[in-house]
Amino acid sequence: MVSNKPIHVFHILHHMKMGGVEHLVYDLTKAFQKLNIKTTICCLDGLLGELGEQLKKIGIDIVVLNRRPGFDLKLIFALARLIKELNPDIIHAHQYTPYFYGVTASILAKKKETIFSEHGRLYPDKLRIKRVIYNRLILLPYTKRITVDSNHLKNALVHYEKIPSNRIKILPNGIKLEPFSSITPENRLVKRNELGIKDDEFAIGMIARLDPIKDHNTLIRAFKIVCENYSNIKLFLAGKGPLYNDIKALIDSLGLSEKAILLGYYEDLYGLLNALDLYILSSHLESAPLGVMEAMAAELPVIATNAGGTGEIIVDGKDGYLVPPRDSKKMAEAIIRVINNPKEAKEVAKRGKEKIYNYYSFDRMVQDYKNLYLELVARR
């Protein structure tokens, strides 16, 4: 007899502020409400955040703990008590620290159905012997599934955490496709006018936090090279972050203040994509960048650094363009290639859109996670 009782998933993560992992949990939680999956969220670091506040408004239970710096033994016992009280069917820990505390607490609470999902690694990554020993002796025996969003991350877990390759399953990220219905020629003209882009101007853009790992400097220096050959181009950088002043200073020092525009936080990202002619990602490390997927879904030609898992999404010259990280000259050459070959760029962009719609949809990702949960519950 099949039970109609919802599967109860207990997500553990650092917080629910704006961020990639947090948006993933936010979106999955809302989708699961329609799929007979109950969600409880635990934020370890005492920060509910904007996304958490929105979920609370629609009735999602969120528990906020206050992890202390360093190893917090009290947190383990608090988490174990919480798990015993809630008695979820599945514990789903996102990133390594929540995984460490989640599994350790689940052992005390005598719960076995734990999933570890890794979404990114610190840079630079390194091997930690004590952690590897704890992984092998304590965490792995009590972990039912381990997921990553790219082969790059899988290799990192194998190399730095010494997790056996056959224990790791790749579940690619997915993006919502419905918002791209607003990408129309009419809306494009409105948005370009709003951004001050003239009819004959070529608009390049990147949407990313202003952080060292995104390496905006390489893009800005590449843009400077392109500006020496073309006058009717503009660069739009959307995002906030700690490097705002440094990036602005570089733009000013290169004489690009009229052509390279820092938009800061920009709410209408789909409108911005609609206004652009080319999307670029200059990061020197990525796992499975959603910004690249969204630009491809918007049918933009995309130039991205071949760093981390980006090369698993883009096939160079077929559905996008790959360039080496930290190489302004090669990036400038790729930009000039797109400008000079609009027919080729249009065909590449079309194939990129087809790939995203076929393989990287949000609905497919939701189904992947649902199937994973059903599999674990069925095996109990």
What portion of residues is helical?
40-55%
Arithmetic mean of pLDDT: 95
* Assembly context of the chains: single chain
Task: Give the SSE order as H and E letters.
Answer: EHEHEHEHEHEHEHEHEHEHEHEHEHHH
Strand content: 15-25%
- The total tally of domains equals 2
Level-1 CATH class name of the largest domain: Alpha Beta
- Shape category: elongated
Query: What would you call the structural class?
Result: alpha/beta
Task: Give, in spatial order, the strands making up the sheet with the most strands.
Answer: 3-2-1-4-5-6-7
Explain what you see:
- The protein is of the alpha/beta class.
- The protein has two domains: 7-174 and 362-378, 3-Layer(aba) Sandwich (Rossmann fold); 178-359, Glycogen Phosphorylase B (Rossmann fold, 3-Layer(aba) Sandwich).
- Helix content is 45%, strand content 17%.
- The protein has a seven-stranded parallel beta sheet, with helices on both faces.
- It is elongated.
